[in-house]
Amino acid sequence: MANELRFRTARDLFSACPAVARGMKAAPTDQPSIEFCRALLAGRVPEEAITFCAYLLPERAAIWWAHECLSNLAELLGDRDLELLALVGDWVGEPGNPDHSEAVAQAVEVPPTTPVSWIALATGWRDNGPAIDTAAAGSPAAHAVSAGILAGLARVSLADRFAVLSAFVEMGIQMAEMEAQRQAADAY
Q1: Rounded to two decimals, what is the model's pTM?
Q2: CA 147 to chain centre
Q3: pLDDT of the chain, 188 residues: tens digit per residue
Q4: CB within 10 Å: which end of the chain, N or C, has fewer?
């Protein structure tokens, strides 16, 4: 399975997405991406596994992953975040639907200050990708996904934080593996 991932090794991901290095202290290795991600989770800064997953996943899948992570924290989110979460869910279901794209775009006219506002911002960056100089912006959707999930995790009690973090990383890994399977099926 790991051979079919978008980035076979951590070094492949770091080479393709240099912006990931700005969000992490860990140095890339030649470990398969999934092994590297799990090593990050077991390391000194386990939150780096979230950042790595955000870049490992294709943008739409990363946004869906973030949506699912934050949906699991719904009781810690405010009403505005819950509204945005519903808009993001609609967008992920039909990213080409101009009504969903417009609703999300209007919802995030202010700078992101909450977990879900980061994710909503990622949808806008994904929709407007050609208009953004991604080399200069440094994979803004992945950065926003990482920021949103980490902001959500900051609201989790210290006693529960590592368990929630681990569950989110495992969900990201599963999504990466499912995306690899989907890509392989599409290739045939």
Answers
A1: 0.87
A2: 8
A3: 444 778 999 999 999 998 898 889 999 999 999 999 999 999 999 999 999 999 999 998 999 999 999 999 999 999 988 988 998 898 888 877 777 667 676 666 656 788 998 998 888 765 554 333 333 345 688 999 999 999 999 999 999 999 999 999 999 999 999 988 887 777 66
A4: C
